[in-house]
What we know:
The structure is a homodimer.
Chain A: E1 3-8, H1 37-45, E2 55-59, H2 63-69, E3 78-81, H3 87-102, E4 107-112, E5 116-117, H4 120-136, E6 141-146, E7 157-167, E8 170-179, H5 184-193, E9 196-206, H6 207-217, H7 219-231, H8 237-244, H9 253-258, E10 264-269, E11 273-274, H10 281-285, E12 294-296, E13 299-302, E14 308-311, E15 317-321, E16 326-330, E17 334-339, H11 346-355
Parallel strand pairs in A: 1-2, 1-4, 2-3, 6-10, 12-14, 13-15, 14-16
Antiparallel strand pairs in A: 4-9, 5-11, 6-9, 7-8, 7-9, 8-10, 16-17
Helix pairs in contact in A: 3-6, 3-7, 6-7, 7-8
Amino acid sequence: xxxxxxIMAGGRGERFWPKSRIKFPxxxxxxxxxxSMLQLTVQRLTGLVPLENIHIVTGEEYRxxxxxxxxxxxxxxxxxxxxxRNTAPCIGLAAMVVKRKYGEDAIMVVVPSxxxxxxxxxxxxxxxxxxxxxxxxxDTLVTIGITPNEPATGYGYIQIDKVITQINKHSIYxxxxxxxxxxxETAAAYLRAGGYYWNSxxxxxxxxxxxxxxxxxxxxxxxxxxxxxxxxxNETYERVLNYVYPQMPSISIDYGVMEKADQVLVIPADxxxxxxxxxxxxxxxxxxxxxxxxxxxxxxxxDSHRCIVEADCEEKLIVLLGTEDLIVVDTDDxxxxxxxxxxxEIKMVLDNLKKCNQERYL
Amino acid sequence: xxxxxxIMAGGRGERFWPKSRIKFPxxxxxxxxxxSMLQLTVQRLTGLVPLENIHIVTGEEYRxxxxxxxxxxxxxxxxxxxxxRNTAPCIGLAAMVVKRKYGEDAIMVVVPSxxxxxxxxxxxxxxxxxxxxxxxxxDTLVTIGITPNEPATGYGYIQIDKVITQINKHSIYxxxxxxxxxxxETAAAYLRAGGYYWNSxxxxxxxxxxxxxxxxxxxxxxxxxxxxxxxxxNETYERVLNYVYPQMPSISIDYGVMEKADQVLVIPADxxxxxxxxxxxxxxxxxxxxxxxxxxxxxxxxDSHRCIVEADCEEKLIVLLGTEDLIVVDTDDxxxxxxxxxxxEIKMVLDNLKKCNQERYL
Lengths: 362, 362
């Protein structure tokens, strides 16, 4: 069983602006400690396979960042997307690279580069089980469902169908349906009903399984990927890739394949997962000062509550007086002050900056 | 009639921290436009008398700031307080200097250095009238009462008694009483009742009147001032001043003299006055962007309302998203984010900084 992790690291992390910047996005930041989220992801996966097997997909503009953060990654393991095109083309491209290097039986473990995992051992155990399931069941796509501990509205949910088997003490279910991010009432109903899990965005399948599913559900994309695959063996590769890749639609693997595929399995898991989707995520994962504010940097908070403060510069002092429910992010050239309930709308700021020709702040 | 303006410029302006700093307080800042508030005050008073007559009282630490901002001020017109001791000692000291230079009949026009005056002509006209009244009525202290346009709780009030005379079309009243900053209900009752004016902190009197009143109501302070006066004529002056001045109690002229004096007159006036007492004052005097936020600097505000933003650095971008009723002040080394209803409590921050040995931010 050849296991080949594929880390998707091409995102812009816009909801973590202004700390996450177009030239230095979220996955390269050390929001979770001393190491970047990408470094933590790679480190975790080396518990599954050696670094030589680990692949990273990202954009050309982040090549040097990946090289500096993961200096020992073989250069051939860095898969460059000519342009960001969501997860379906990204996974399709990776599948073609893995097919060339390891053959159609190789098992791809596709994971995001910017999630929090608290229990690495539980995580690896779950991934191993997923690999076994992907190996045993032909033409099958496996995903990880996270046991929800609150009616979160920021995640998609997976409803399970009947149990298929038991591997390494993990029950493995057929997926009944994927559902988009629900409103609070719906999410609460899911939790009451049971049998719903958070969609973790992690997928495990053989090269053969994912490609045959792409062929069935996204035939045009499959043709594009096939062109890319064939070009890999000769010197026109880069030209073909740059020409063909942008033709593929910007579609997620969830929408393009997972929701339509016949044979999707899910392994429920509970290894302390968080997608670190926006600044408010930090409230779930960092210790609160005085039990109320989440603070990093040279900050004084007086009579302030439920605020999130991230300050870069040691010399600069940030003072909060009588404030509530704010996100404050101070960087060298930008200070963001955002109401916590607007954390999802930071992209609005970026749109505004583009409109005003202030790209230097992006 | 010798008119001698005395500008009190020794304040710390703590409520305008972090823009107002211990080394560069509010009166030296250009919060109201291109010039500092001190410069605007001096400029206005040159409509009354030449610069040679204008005196400034401040602390030693601000000598060079005054010199750089008012380079043509005669050095003898700069009165240095060895230590900040509120307005009674400050005015007493100035009275002794003016007595030496101009004699007991000179009329002192004592004004703060950090107030907004919109209508300079009306202001000068009122001051001239006040000087005439101070000249005509022996042993009299004259003050300016501002016609209130709202039940402000940030000002003291002056209740008028019977009208005494009419000079230059101004009615001049005897003061019935001074009242401390009232609560909102009381202030509203004052406005309904009529006959109440805001205490502007401007005082006009002859040297003789103020000194005889100090002698009556603060005899110990008078003795201290007398020692200082006598020392002026010889070389021990500075030593005596440094020894005697700190012995005087830190008391306001309002509390120490005005509230107790027999013969206090008030001239009601309405020349667009504001004491610029805290960051929220800016809402009254500056134009609001989109009718809601008061903004200076490189700032983007999205869905934000009733905020006050003051940003120093051109290169640094401040972004507000979905915030309400905030004061945001960004300087080189400090960013303050303060709920607007806590504007009066900024001193709390300064106390905190002292406690934590972070004096460099004061």
